[in-house]
Protein 1
Amino acid sequence: MTNNQLISSRNWEELDLGRYHYLLAFARSLSRVLVFVGIALLAYGLAWNYSTHRYLEGFADAIIPLVGTPEQKSEALLDWLRNAPERRGGELDHASPRDPVGVVQDARLLKVCGSASNAFINLGEAVGLKTRRLLLLSADGGSKHVVVEVQWGDRWAVVDPSFRAVFRDRSGRPLTKEELRNPEVFQDAISRIPNYNPDYTFERTVHLRLSRIPVIGTFLRRTLDFLFPRWEEMANWGYLPEHPSLWPIVMSIPLFLLGIVIGVIAGRYSCAQIGPKTFGFRKLLVETSRVFYIGRPNSTRNA
């Protein structure tokens, strides 16, 4: 008869679990660290997001009318971009194009299509405009220009913040990206935008460049396009990548959950010292909490 067959339910508590001691100790420490880091990142992200939003609200209130139609607010924001004062031109190397605060303070960044679009989106959202980033792609799938779609009533008008212009037809009606795919409509619209590059066409547009994701990016887009042809229109997928203040919040969630899962597993193994009987969910939570905060289960501590 082997040793495993000699172990009965009554002498389970006498089983030597010394080989698990260091692994459990490491798991408990790792669980605490992950939970602490998750909570810290969450608090930091919330504070960063709140301070950024408050700054942009105050900045936008000074340049955009609080009362007005989406078109009026968009035109006011474009007018500010046309006359943006030089602020931090000498500090361009230190300003990130994705930093909402740094971009609106740097007139040189406001001349770049990507950062100018970010500034328009961030300030527009601060006064209630519904916007989304639109990437114009070249034939090889690379991004050649960035514009913004703004919801005006039931239409998503295309605005180019870097050229400080709204795409309109001859009657002044704002144009959508679908309409601008027509070469004649596009050529007519850019004829009223000084120095506009005719290569910035709308044949291929996306809101999110999944192709930048290594290995699976292209396959993921093809799959989504096949299963959900209008998935890009369902949500503003470009919001998270262009708002770095939200990144710590997103990172905190998996770290916190992973810490909890590791703590539960460590607690379950530690509960083996109490006996092989089946524990209810409440008992498991109690013992896991003891392991997480004290370092060992109740029965071991009383031994």
Protein 2
Amino acid sequence: MIVLRIPVGSAIPMDRQDEQRRIDLMSQVRRFDHVGITVADLKEVTAFFVGLGLEVEGTPMFVEGEFLDTVIGIPDSRTEIVMLRPPDGGTRLELSSFVRPDHQPGSPAAMANELGLRNVAFEVDDLQTVVDRLAADGYGLVGNIGQYEHVWRMAYVRGPEGIIVSLAERIG
């Protein structure tokens, strides 16, 4: 094993070939395509996100067979998937509900410091209006509405099945 000891603050010289290798490695990801969330009640969770302004892309579909079994490592699996996209056409949200095997429950009361995917975030035009509408539908704040400097107002809302939805309004 070769160990390089480089003094703190020293630059590591790179030739063109090293730089090209670094760029090639970084270019492996072409874009951020989607985030997937496994849910028990696909209709309820879909309705929640559609209510926030996301749009259903295509029609719900069932996926099963060798491809799915290979990718997720669960033999004889079958899932129903709904893809949602934000109005600006950005990164999509994939909601998946397993027909088989039965889904494994997560912690519906998970807090932001628990390991794993903790929230899905959206920018909104009027945070208070969205929070009030969600509260009327039975979805409450995890904490309170906070303000970051004079730039953002933000709140975490506990959505269906315990999903934490981060909502942010640009104010500056």
Protein 3
Amino acid sequence: MSGSTSIQPHRSSDGHFHPESLLQHTQSAQPISVWRALLSGAAAGVSVDISLYPIDTLKTRLQSPHGFWKSGGFRGVYKGLSAAASGSAPGAALFFVTYESAKPFIHSHILHRDASHSLDSSPLTHMFAASAAETMACLIRVPTEVVKQRMQTGGYDTLRHALTDIRAKYGLRGFYAGYGTTVAREIPFSFIQFPIWERLKVLWAQRINDGEAVLPWQGAVCGSMSGAFAAAVTCPLDVIKTRLMLRTDAQGVEYQGFADCVRRIHIEGGKGAFFKGVVPRVSWIFVGGFFFFGAYEKTKQLTADSEM
């Protein structure tokens, strides 16, 4: 449903507006087409990754086993931007194509919900669709993250050097270091973020917009709030993912899988070590969520007329 689509409030015979009628009405809205999801997702990915890249660099350096200052401190905060830019558009595009396509399928064929159950008010639909989307998007996102984070922490100076060296040392598998952990982090994140985002938009439409669909900036605010909450809860998984992608600790000893990484992080700094970088992570996702979801909703709005 595009941001420009008007949802007219339904009134019963008593002349009063009933919020549940809005939910029933939104069920009739058709899912957006694949090409619109592709274009909107690409715009979302590029807008957030490029605009807020320095904050992401600082977060990665805070989580590095070598420490913030040895990893570069505040110097060269745009290192790795070329890797991020090359993967952000296709990664986000693949996510939203999968997400928008999976929602109606999961709603009807897996959860067996009929027309009386609104697609917009079904948390399970959003949870499962977002999980499927994250699994697909990580096929692009993880190689991008591996190269980007090695460059952010001073491992490589150029994208070409990073690509050739990682492949020479580890083969193609080297680009998927931490894939399982990344998926394990992203799925809980999306389980939390997307149902809240979708629900906040419905509540905003009901209680603030008098039944009118949310505008792009309003959807962006909802994305900021839901993303910040999810970011704080899943920070420990993000720390573990970062360490696995960097492969070694401060002494150069390689991590031997997820359990070994968790054990050594705990020895290194206790429970607090799992929340290193939580402030820039929450800040990045809060502000980034506004750009990300704002760009997504706005692009959907701009392309809505082509399907009418």
Protein 4
Amino acid sequence: MRAHLTQPHDGAPAAHHTAAGGAVYVSPHPEPEGARVMFFTRLGGVSQPPFDALNVSVKVGDDPDAVAENISMIHEAVGGVPSAWVKQVAGDGVARVSEGGFAGEADALVTSEEGLCLNVAVADCVPVALVGEDEVAMVHSGWRGSLSGISGKAARRMSGDAKRAYIGPCIRGCCYEVSRELADAFARAFGEDVVSGRHLSLPGAIRVDLERAGVEVVDLGLCTGCRPDLFFSHRKEKPLTGRNLASVVKVAR
């Protein structure tokens, strides 16, 4: 089932889907050619509060059996294809993968394989799906990764041309106040427009980084801080909250 999603921020059109197994996700509308991009919400799973309901992390204190069931639901939603993931370390490492399973420490994955799902887990950090003619990538970009330009690095690792990036649900400048020092560092790296006082726009910085790499950017404009009913937000719900999954699968054109 699909419905259009209304967001309070300026952003590209997004659609709200409920998969056959119950997992709820948002995606760009229309979907990109050659890939499925899926930003899973917190809705449709079996975890109990404060991890309700589609939490994918056992590290936050959730019941492992509930997490396993949630992951199984997501596996069904992505079509039952193999999945690849990494140990996210808030850095700028990019892992190239060709098969499902654990791919080591990194914060971005790149593949040329059709039918392989690339995943990152987020709760305010920025998920960025990259879709190119030959390859796809999925990026986890917190403030450290954003400052080091991980999205642009992942894009440059991809072969082929005509790359497009999809910035998914994340915390935005309205809800993300940082230290003066960090705001100044981002302003120096990406320009004054990415900060307003001490409020930092990670999507704005990532857009600058990607455009420098020659990538077209589509930002869905969804804020996890504004919508804790729909997404997990570490900043708004700490110390305990779940993690959302963000996924991209290369498909035949």
